[in-house]
Amino acid sequence: MTDVGVPETDKDSRNYLQNFRLLSRNETVDYSNRHVFQALETNKREGLALAVRARWIALCIIAVLLIFIIPSWDVLFYEAVLVGLALIGWLQLRAGTVGRSRWELTLIFMDIALMTVGMLVPNPFLDQDWPSAIQFQFNNFKYFYVFLAAMTLGYSWRTVISYGTWAAVLWLLGMVLILFFGTVDPELTDRLREAALGDERLLSLIDPSRVGVANRIEEVTVFLIVAGILAVNSFRMNQLLLRQASTTRERTNLARHFPPNIVDQLAERDQPLGTVREQDVAVMFADIVGFTRLAEKETPEAVVAMLRDFHQLIEETVFEHGGTLDKYLGDGVMVTFGTPEAGKCDACDAISCAEALFSRMDMWNDQRSGRGEARIKLSIGLHYGSVILGDIGTERRLEFATLGDAVNVASRLEELTRSLGTVCVLSDDLVEAAKRQSGEATGLLDHYSRKDEVQSLRGRDAGIVLWVRKMAATDNSN
After folding, report:
1. C-alpha dist (Å) from residue 199 to 42, 196, 204, 376
2. What torsion, rounded to 10 degrees, do the Cα atoms 188, 191, 197, 203 define?
3. Does the N-terminal peptide bond of residue 340 adopt cis geometry, omega within 30 degrees of 0?
4. Cα–Cα dist 8/15, whole Å
5. Residue 237: its pLDDT value, please?
6. Which pLDDT value is given to residue 355?
7. Is the pLDDT of residue 431 over 80?
8. Is the pLDDT of residue 462 over 70?
9. How far apart are CA 345 and CA 342, in angstroms?
């Protein structure tokens, strides 16, 4: 059933609440995802550092404030509590990790316990023998809010709720202990009752022996409400962080196929790759000649290392010339120029890229020869024509694909390099497109010669006119 007439904001709110309920039952964060883990790790570290700084600043302000509130040596007890809280904050910073940590939770519990003791245990430096319940008259519970707010900077919504719950429980536990085991002063209460002329409401406000159960319950209730609101906000910020991590992952996936400048453009669009469409592009197939024979002579580690260097060389060169890495084919690669959108000089860029690849292959082979390794021979086929662009696959796995006759022709041209005794074959369609796109295209063909005869291709009825690269003595040969 569809939601007819329901505003988008209402739908978003409903989805948000549903996600919150699901996460409250089971943590669904995928820590195996590198981008998610890095985002959470960075956010946790930065948040904890900010939280500890905020804690220290707050503690310093409170420490100075207490000197004016308690202008005597009695203040040393509370200053010692503040020092302990500062130390616990430093330990929390050192122990901070992504996910829930027992050590972190222990430190948080120690935080709350120390604060509760500091607020409810009578000051040992105080000479007066006051009733135990007088500690509630100082209204120190408000300091819990400072630490609760700092919690939201570095901890998850679950931990914020835990903090609020533990603080409420320990505060009520302290109330119960004082209620049943605390000291009282009945004579002082009687004198205050006389001064209040029997007004019980007034007496409840000034009686130091009164625990004030209703007031204590009100304190923790409001505190839990605030903790819940802050937890929801932390959950919301965490969802935003995960969406940003997802965006980073998507940009990384795009960067595997497209040059950086194209990635920036695609990332700004709602539908980066667009709809299924037909357009003219330049297609390149590049392959290592005799790879099987070469691999038989090398160890698996050496073969993988060689392929990684080869793929890096291909990637850098292709991206420098505005090409798109369509897919790796083991020891080969398929590259397109003009995807996802057609450029002004796609055919010229394809030829320039091929020449740059041969130059870099020569330099790489010189390095390999210097290490006593075999030289690598590269073969390239290039064609220009109409292709179909679009997503193929299922909902579980989609792939942006380039399909059509132009792709098949480029692949066949790369295969022809062996029988034609060359390292690169261009189609006449590519050359004509390059001449139309740029007046400088002729200079790109200095290393190529046109074959007059029409060449037939496997699996294709129509013949094709070819341009072959003139072989040099050092042309990335084995």
Report:
1. 59, 5, 9, 101
2. 0
3. yes
4. 10
5. 75
6. 93
7. yes
8. yes
9. 9
Domains of the chain, each with CATH number or no CATH? 8-252 (no CATH), 272-469 (3.30.70.1230)
- For 229-350, strand residue ranges (E) read 277-288, 324-329, 332-337
Question: CB count, 10 Å around CB of 164?
Answer: 23
Give the Cα separation of 432 and 347 in Å (integer).
Answer: 9
Q: What is the pLDDT of residues 143-196, one digit of tens each?
A: 899 888 888 887 778 888 989 999 999 999 999 998 888 888 777 777 777 776
pLDDT digits (tens, 9 = 90+) for 307-318: 989 988 998 899
CA angle at residue 458 from 457 to 462, to 5 degrees? 45
Residue 22, SS3 per DSSP: helix
**CA–CA dist 173, 165 (Å, integer):** 12
Q: Where are the beta strands (DSSP E) in 98-168?
A: none
The residue behind tokens 């985002």 is 39
Q: Name 389's bridge partners.
A: 277, 402
Q: Is residue 70 helix, strand or coil? A: coil
Q: What is the largest CA-CA distance in the chain?
A: 123
Q: Indicate the Cα dihedral angle 345, 346, 347, 349, nearest 10°.
A: 80
Orientation of helix 143-154 relative to helix 213-255, angle to 10°: 10
Strand-pair category, 424-427 with 378-393: parallel
- The Cα–Cα gap between 472 and 424 comes to 12
Q: Residue 275 gets which letter from DSSP?
A: S
